[in-house]
Amino acid sequence: MRGFQPYIAHSLEQSRQLGHLPPLDLLLLDLDLPDGNGLDLLDDPAMPAHEHAVIVTGSPTVESAIQAVSRPVYDYLLKPLCPAQFDALLAQSAAAHARAQDGTSQHGMVGGCEAMQQVYRDIERVATSNVSVLVCGDSGTGKELVARALHARSGRRGAFVAVNAGAVSPELLASHLFGHERGSFTGANYRHAGYFEQANGGTLFLDEITEMTPALQVYLLRVLEAGTLTRVGGSEPIGIDVRIVAATNRDPLVAMEAGALREDLYYRLADYTMCLPPLRERGDDVVLLARHFLEQLNFRHGTGRRLADGSERVLLRHAWPGNVRELRSAIQRAYLASDGQQVRVWPAQRRMRPALDDADSVIFTVGTSYAEIEREMLARTLARFDNDRTRAAQALGVSVRTIHNQLARLKRSTEAR
């Protein structure tokens, strides 16, 4: 059907015997197999590489749905599949295969511009090595997709574990990363294995690495250098074998200058650096991605909608400050608002920042350090908004946590003088 060659396995063990096959365009996984859970195959290096994985189950549970969402799973479907669903699924895979053949789709990412071709080459170049990789790029450009691709191609037998350092409070991040012993602090009622132990033998993705406190950066560096860690409240060193992929949406050199990233940690994380281009610099990729997201929605809802005339011109004119994440949201919003077969895309109008009058203008002379510029702009912006950190963060285009971290660094710097 549609030119596909099917391969069938009735158990985990039989599935692992298919490792000699070339990369698969589509992997259908049942959750209830005689010898285990089909989700276990997603991180199994004995399995052939695959472009899309789809869960198909007759016994859906909230737990399995949550597990699927946290993994690189294309969709979660219920048995029995009707013929139209199955045909739509094959059509999606055929379209993805065609993009892969013309070089516009690889590793679960879509893009044919030269910058994305370089990203694909970088993934193939370093995936099988054990070097740490630092992925730089604006928010929404796909840094976690790169990390997952590196893990999938690495051959490492352990799990892929992702943690956003900016989404966990500094007081709890150490426990989350390195684990803790029972009774080590209030509320520690049991021993906890942290993300490093969970990723042992696999890959740990550390997103927003510049949001980690300097003290925690020191301990992270020690763990990476020694290959061992000690749980919070513990005394016994635990050996680990973890490949690190870190990411930041800031220029790492500027972050070092501002004190947000330790220089020694940077050099330990950046054995190899990859830079993801913003969507506004990717040319026609915006149209490829829009069609890709629309294909996914058509499959999920059993429809055959297409972009309305003129939508591609609108897509190409928009700057997409939210990058691929913003584009995905715009396509979904347009799809839901559409009553017919044509989907007309109108990017959301972004709220303009308050205009600054002459009194708010700041001029810096050549030679002013990044740290001084950052400190001055932070102080003036907070003053402009009556010390409202939320509004200041919105005006500066950063998170409120970043504002808190910068103020804490400035305080420490002042006290050290």
UniProtKB/TrEMBL annotation:
Gene3D superfamilies, per this entry?
Answer: 1.10.8.60, 3.40.50.2300, Homeodomain-like (1.10.10.60), P-loop containing nucleotide triphosphate hydrolases (3.40.50.300)
Residue span(s) of domain Response regulatory: 1-94
User: Which InterPro entries does the protein's record reference?
Assistant: AAA+_ATPase, AAA_lid_NorR, CheY-like_superfamily, Homeodomain-like_sf, HTH_Fis, P-loop_NTPase, Sig_transdc_resp-reg_receiver, Sigma_54_int
According to the UniProt entry, which residues carry 4-aspartylphosphate?
Answer: D30
The answer to whether keyword Transcription regulation applies is yes
Q: What is an example of a Pfam family matching this protein?
A: HTH_8
Q: Which CDD domains is this protein grouped with?
A: AAA
Domain Sigma-54 factor interaction, first and last residues per copy: 109-336
The cross-references to PROSITE patterns, in alphabetical order and at most eight, read: RESPONSE_REGULATORY (PS50110), SIGMA54_INTERACT_1 (PS00675), SIGMA54_INTERACT_2 (PS00676), SIGMA54_INTERACT_4 (PS50045)
Q: Which UniProt keywords apply?
A: ATP-binding, DNA-binding, Nucleotide-binding, Phosphoprotein, Transcription, Transcription regulation
Q: What is this protein called?
A: Sigma-54 dependent transcriptional regulator
Gene source species: Lysobacter panacisoli
